[in-house]
Each structure stands twice: as C-alpha cells, then as structure tokens.
Design a protein that fits this description.
By secondary structure, the protein is of the alpha+beta class. The chain has two helices and five strands.
C-alpha cells in the first residue's frame, strides 16, 4: 500500500508520523521537566535520571544528565536530550554530544 498524497502532493502519512513523533518528544520533555523539578535541590553538577526525548514511542531509555546540562538544554524550546543513536538526521541537528546523551535541535518547526 502506498502512502496517500494530499492535494498539494505532500505525503500525508509522513506528515502524520512527523506530528506523532513531535507529540512524543513534547510529552517526554514535559515528563523530564517534572522529574527535574522534583530534584530542584540538587547541585549544578549532580545528575538526574531522565528519559530519552527521541521521537520513538517505544523508547524509555534512561539518561543520566547533570542538572547544569539539563538547564542548558531547556534554554531553547527546540532542543531535546536523546540517547546516542536516536538522532533523526532529517529533522534534528546535534548541538552537543556526551558519552551518556546527545542534545539535538529540531530543524524547521518546533514540536
């Protein structure tokens, strides 16, 4: 079965998958912000255990991120923390890499 196309010729299935992935990333971002808020007394260099914010609905990979690192990621609404190897090259660019996680920035629209 081939993906359907809209009247303007765009691939509707791809657009739906992209929107679904963006919703997943936004939900993981909200969850991680709540986890981080509970660790609000932690020092800047202490780590918190967060969940990968990739677009894969089946991913629940834990990531160890320092409080300072998480604060840097949250300075922009278009950056997310993901497991190495979970970067969507067509939609994201890597802005920081660590052994434990990668910070990506969405290109184009924000989720």
């Amino acid at each position: 079965m081939s993906p359907s196309r809209s009247q303007d010729g765009s691939n509707e299935q791809y657009g739906a998958e992209e929107r679904s992935g963006a919703r997943i990333q936004a939900l993981m971002r909200q969850l991680n912000e709540q986890v981080y808020a509970m660790a609000s007394n932690a020092e800047h260099d202490e780590s918190v255990l967060l969940i990968c914010e990739c677009a894969d609905s089946g991913c629940s990979t834990p990531l160890s991120v320092t409080c300072g690192g998480f604060e840097r990621v949250r300075q922009s609404p278009t950056t997310f923390v993901v497991k190495p190897g979970h970067v969507l090259a067509a939609e994201e660019r890597v802005v920081e890499e660590t052994p434990d996680y990668v910070v990506v920035e969405k290109v184009g629209r924000a989720p």
